[in-house]
Amino acid sequence: MTSSEVRPGEFMAAEIAEQPAVLAGLVERRADIAAVASAIAERPPRFALLAARGSSDHAALYAKYLIEVLLGLPAGLVSPSTVTLYGARPDLRDVLLVSVSQSGGSPDLIEVTEAARKQGALTVSVSNTPSSPLHSAAELAVDIGAGKENAVAATKTYSATLMALYLLIDAVRGGDGADAANIGELAERTLRDAEEGVRRATDRYRFVDRVITTGRGYSYATALESALKLAETSYLAARAYSGADLLHGPVAAIDGETAVLAVTGAGRGGSAMHDVLDAVTDRGADVLAVGSSSDDVPAALRIPVPVVAEELAPVLEVLPVQRLALGLSLARGGDPDRPRGLKKETKTR
């Protein structure tokens, strides 16, 4: 099929629909990920660092929460330019570095991984490209196995990266992945049950200019990824804030012309969003609540998501948001498969 025969958004729609099978497949391959986790557990790190860009950076932030909460280790996000532009070579003995990249081809992440390995870190790559230079640069590798992604906007590679990171970190702590056993079925249910809510949200927000996305805890990663998806597919002025940070100043810019996409799941992060949503509602914002506790907060529209362990919620929460980004892009006359000025693989240094 030539590009002229492909309908706008056809690739993105198909790849969103593939996610239940991709996620279920990862759970089936858990033993491969557990083998990497076993190698990490044999060399317990003092702390962890995560290197990533774009959507993968949001997945890395999710992993930061997993590492700090589930493993009890300090974790931080790397600034690649300290290595690539400034030549920093910190002592990384007894440190775990996890490099996350869908393509595995970004020069800065490869250089960071190579440098960290030379400086004593245990390096792990998490990528969708087993033959990538990043996998070769790292000592250990996790293949997320999402298959080829044709749309520029990452959908199945993002959720699969979250799933792979969860299975890896859960295995490091000695878990058996039981909470994720039926994640494929839950993803299928999420996409099916969200159809009407996504349609209504698309109709309501197709002419909006400004969107604030917000969440707390594990779901902060979903808020960041939501803003990116809306910006790159629908060219919206979308900005993400932690719910806590939103109250520290930015809430003053919210008014009746502002749409707020709030990620509100069951658990401590979702509970901490109640005061945030009371504040933005008082300022007249039009709130779309997405998550397993969306019925418990003030909102104009709600898209519920099945209840899972809080640390797994981001895998499901992002699915209806991807559908919303697709719908808004098409409603606004765009093609989310080919956003203007973007390529599938971005190389930075």
UniProtKB/TrEMBL annotation:
Species, as recorded: Amycolatopsis minnesotensis
PANTHER family, sorted: AMINOTRANSFERASE-RELATED (PTHR10937:SF8), GLUCOSAMINE--FRUCTOSE-6-PHOSPHATE AMINOTRANSFERASE, ISOMERIZING (PTHR10937)
InterPro entries xrefs: GlmS/AgaS_SIS, GlmS/FrlB_SIS, SIS_dom, SIS_dom_sf
SIS domain sequence ranges: 36-178, 201-339
Keyword Translocase: no
UniProtKB keywords: Repeat
Name of this protein: SIS domain-containing protein
UniProt signal peptide: none
UniProt-listed CDD domains: SIS_GlmS_GlmD_1 (cd05008), SIS_GlmS_GlmD_2 (cd05009)
Keyword Repeat: yes
Compositional bias of kind Basic and acidic residues: 334-349
Positions of region (Disordered): 330-349
